[in-house]
């Protein structure tokens, strides 16, 4: 039992150290150094966001999954693509800020194309209006990707295509979540997309902050781009 506790405490220490990274370069360096242990560490956290996002997309996508092209933004090592593959999706392009994460995504063999880009600081290196599904899991939170980046996710999606996003609902991320939901609603009012589903999940992942115990909650948002 103590080994499990030590493992969780080690992972907790790693993640809390990331909060000390303030510049984009420091954040990229952190993820580069974490890449090798990332999959096993998030498994210790019982990190469910990739499977929850994939389930949401699968529940509402009615097109040809084998032909659909998916843009996986902040793809990391490929956890989301791995889940979507189980649901019949086969064509993936991934974008991430960390070259070390991209190397592992490349080794997975899931992606047809992978590109390095600092999200929120550089334009997405993609063709607008091209993707059947655009997904971003884990990166929409305070200190990571700015809220207004969701507009580029929408621009990347085909009319009639889907955008799936996740965020945490823990105390550190409350203000960010409010801003995110305000932006999502504003874009709906502008006629850019329509909300298909919002799923609030109580047991999102194990809490790592000193102020929280047990599990933190989170949310999955699924939007459909309108024909404008």
Automatic annotation (TrEMBL):
Which CDD domains does the record match to this protein?
A: AdoMet_MTases
Q: What is this protein called?
A: Methyltransferase like 27
Gene designation per UniProt? mettl27
Write out the GO MF terms: S-adenosylmethionine-dependent methyltransferase activity
Concerning PANTHER family, the annotation shows: METHYLTRANSFERASE (PTHR43591), METHYLTRANSFERASE-LIKE PROTEIN 27 (PTHR43591:SF101)
- In this chain the Methyltransferase type domain maps to 71-164
């Amino acid at each position: 039992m103590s080994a499990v506790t030590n493992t969780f405490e080690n992972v907790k220490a790693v993640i809390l150290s990331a909060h000390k990274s303030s510049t984009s370069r420091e954040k990229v360096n952190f993820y580069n150094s974490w890449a090798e242990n990332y999959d096993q560490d998030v498994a210790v956290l019982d990190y469910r966001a990739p499977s929850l996002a994939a389930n949401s997309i699968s529940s509402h996508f009615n097109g040809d999954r084998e032909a659909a092209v998916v843009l996986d933004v902040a793809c990391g090592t490929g956890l989301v693509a791995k889940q979507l593959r189980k649901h019949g999706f086969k064509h993936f392009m991934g974008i991430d800020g960390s070259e070390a994460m991209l190397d592992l995504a490349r080794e997975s063999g899931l992606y047809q194309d992978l590109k390095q880009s600092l999200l929120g600081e550089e334009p997405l290196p993609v063709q607008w209006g091209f993707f059947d599904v655009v997904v971003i899991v884990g990166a929409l939170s305070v200190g990571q990707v700015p809220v207004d980046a969701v507009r580029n996710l929408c621009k990347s999606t085909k009319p009639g295509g889907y955008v799936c996003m996740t965020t945490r609902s823990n105390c550190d991320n409350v203000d960010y979540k409010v801003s995110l939901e305000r932006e999502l609603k504003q874009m709906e009012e502008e006629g850019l997309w329509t909300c298909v589903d919002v799923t609030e999940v109580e047991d999102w992942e194990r809490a790592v902050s000193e102020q929280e115990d047990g599990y933190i909650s989170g949310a999955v948002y699924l939007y459909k781009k309108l024909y404008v």
